[in-house]
Amino acid sequence: MGRLLFLLLAICLSARAADDEALTLERIHADPPLAGQRPAAQRFSPGGRFLGWLQGSAADSQVQELWARALPDGAPRRLATAAELLGDAPATLTEAEKMALERRRINRRGITSYRWCGDDDRRLLVPIGGALFVLEPGDGAAPRVTRLPLPAPASDGPAREPQCNRAGSLVAYVRGNDLWVQGLDGSAARRLTRSGSDTLSTGLAEFIAAEEFDRFDGFWWSRDGSRLLALEVDESAVPLKSRMQIRAEGSTMTQQRYPSAGENNAKVAPLLIDVATGGVQRIALPAAAEYVVRAGWFEDGTPWLQWMNRTQTELHLVELRAAPAAPRTLWVERDEQWVDVHDDLRELPPAFGPRMLLWSSDRNGRRQLWRLSRDSGEQKPLTERAEPVGRSVCTGTAGVVFTALADRGKASELLLLDGAGRTRTLDPGPARRWRDAVGDRDCTRLLTTDSAWARPPSHSVLSVAADRPPLALPLDPPSPLLARIAPEVQAIDFIAADGRTPLNAFYLPPLAPSSSPAGHAVIVSAYGGPTGSTVAWRWRGDVPLLAYWQRLGFGVLMFDGRGMAGRDREFTHAHYRAIGRVDVDDLFAVVRQLPQRVSGVDPKRIGFTGWSYGGFLAVRAMLDEATPLAAAVAGAPVTDQALYDTAYTERYLGLPDGGKAEPYRQANLVRRAGLLRKPLLLVHGTADDNVLFENSLQLMQALQTEGRLFETAIYPGQTHGIADRRLRLHVDRTGTDFLVRQLRP
């Protein structure tokens, strides 16, 4: 009895200690994460027997491990760690590998990627530390691990982007900028191309494809494994940009092929490669084909690809018939401003008609799903919803699973569209949530993700046919502190600067009294740029930081201005030729309306913080004589749009015309440096390969020349995201300290 009482007392004291845990910046960035360990890269095995994922280790959440579980009710199993695979060898990365991870926004260490190998669920591929490992999970506790012997010489570098054929007998990868193929039965590797050099590669995605079009693959296996569709990338004409990677232990100069607006892009040529013979058939694309944005194979063995012109006003879907492999155009999507790239091209089941493809378009005013005939090119809308479709998830005999937006883009739901045109919600629930999913190969099961404001995502396996109840997947629970500090949010509508468009906004009131009779200060946290949305009923990783600011006595405001994602075409295309105008106009309109919409706000103590495009918006707002903001923190801002990359900048601003184009002049922050009158903090990593550090250097020089005072926080050797937990703590401490100093009564 005494022992039982002791245990109960210990449990109570432990729970009390958790309840008494304080919310500090140090705790926000410490282990274990407040949201718990969240899985990443979750995927069904091709045959549906397993579910795989990456997860941070118990010792360090920044170091990922490979996990899997047998379905439907197998226990989670850790399959491998980096230390187990590499032993004492360090997991060093080449500069090219680091840049590839940055393009995917992978900012953790350990095992950073994996792929299932073949359709029989027997193997996985894990590239790490320059080596390539094959894992066989089996049914036991310890998987069988084989390290593939890579061909000499070692100077050819790591095996990158490995992919197995569907039979699981061969793996293709890129090494020394050439494509190789190797048997998993121990047979020797064979080089399929021999053109690799510092400027010519086959099988890799170039910078623009990965950064701006989310195409990370550079080759694709045919369904029967006999051929590869690969992209040859010639970067010889792309300008070299130098990045000084300044670190505490020294500095190195890194050169990067980076095409700024108006400069030469890489030349991309599709190749069809016979795996058995190594024969290469080059495919001629029209001269107007500036970007290859998607590629793959239809189930009947026909390769296809999508290309865009330089102005991105046309997206061509073509298939490649038998030799000679001349492209045959299936469809051309056109828009006088720009066409959005998507992943919705899928083959539809027979219930939708013979040889039908799924497509999406916003040509009728908002993004909807369409049916496209491979034979005639005829298109017909499949959905006509009041709000945009988010994306397609999968297609199968049951129909099309897709996400649809609701509550003016703030919510996302999972729906099924069958061949008869009927739509139903999958596993209905509360309206204020955000749902997404990945499907298995046949679209019979979904791995769903369900989150809400201040609630981390939960996951379950869901039957599309609804013939069995959802299987909830156990996850590492969030810290009790998160539930205790999770802030209540107020949804508020503002009116854009055009006087008519409603803008979504969330407001978090302060949780400490203000010492000023004029009211409390407010921190506005916003992004403001194209493609993203921040005001939604979904989990945000910065919720603890927002709650921390509340406890310092700040109100916190988030809003989505015109040009951001999740709304109709007129809204999402508002940045066209208007970067630095429509975004700042909406910011100023919202800030000026805030004291009328929320009581107790001191209009003279409203600050702003933003990163990347949000950093640009922060600087632009401060370089304005009419700014209603008192201070701003700008992280990694683009200060001269002509310095940023081709595809992104030209999509919204057109060609720079030697710097004379008006859209570029209005978005140039350097030429506005003399307008700074209020406090500004600039934050940037010196090794940023996305928004080059040169952007902040130019602005710093201009501000100094104009005699304007400002503050800086420079992070040696850090890239665009500054993901290291210790450095993120320093970023948040620096930004918070600045805002407290500048916005105090």
What order do the helices and strands come in, and which of them pair?
Layout (H helix, E strand, L loop, with lengths): L1 H19 L4 H4 L11 E5 L5 E7 L6 E8 L6 E4 L1 H5 L8 H9 L5 E2 L4 E3 L5 E6 L2 E6 L7 E4 L12 E5 L5 E6 L2 E6 L6 E2 L8 E3 L4 H7 L5 E3 L5 E8 L5 E8 L2 E8 L9 E8 L5 E3 L8 E7 L5 E6 L5 E7 L6 E8 L11 E2 L8 E6 L6 E6 L5 E3 L7 E8 L2 E8 L4 E7 L5 E3 L8 E6 L5 E8 L2 E9 L7 E2 L7 H6 L4 E6 L6 E7 L11 E6 L17 H9 L3 E5 L9 H4 L9 H16 L3 E11 L1 H10 L8 E5 L10 H8 L8 H6 L12 E6 L8 H12 L5 E5 L9 H19 L2
Parallel strand pairs: 3-5, 39-40, 39-41, 41-42, 42-43, 43-44
Antiparallel strand pairs: 1-2, 2-3, 3-4, 6-7, 7-8, 8-9, 10-11, 11-12, 12-13, 14-16, 15-16, 16-19, 17-18, 19-20, 21-22, 22-23, 23-24, 25-26, 26-27, 27-28, 29-30, 30-31, 31-32, 33-34, 34-35, 35-36, 37-38, 38-40
Structure explained in plain terms:
The chain has 4 domains: 31-181, Lipocalin (Beta Barrel), CATH 2.40.128; 192-341, Methanol Dehydrogenase, Chain A (8 Propeller), CATH 2.140.10.30; 342-452 and 455-475, TolB, C-terminal domain (Neuraminidase); 489-743, 3-Layer(aba) Sandwich (Rossmann fold), CATH 3.40.50. The termini are far apart. The radius of gyration is 26 Å and the shape is globular. The longest helix has 19 residues, at 2-20. It is 18% helix and 34% strand. The strands form 10 sheets. It has an 8-stranded mixed sheet with strand order 37-38-40-39-41-42-43-44, with helices on both faces. Strands 1, 2, 3, 4 and 5 form a 5-stranded mixed sheet that branches. Strands 14, 15, 16, 19 and 20 form a 5-stranded antiparallel sheet that branches. It has 14 helices and 44 strands. Mean pLDDT is 92; it is low at 1-19. The protein is an alpha+beta fold.
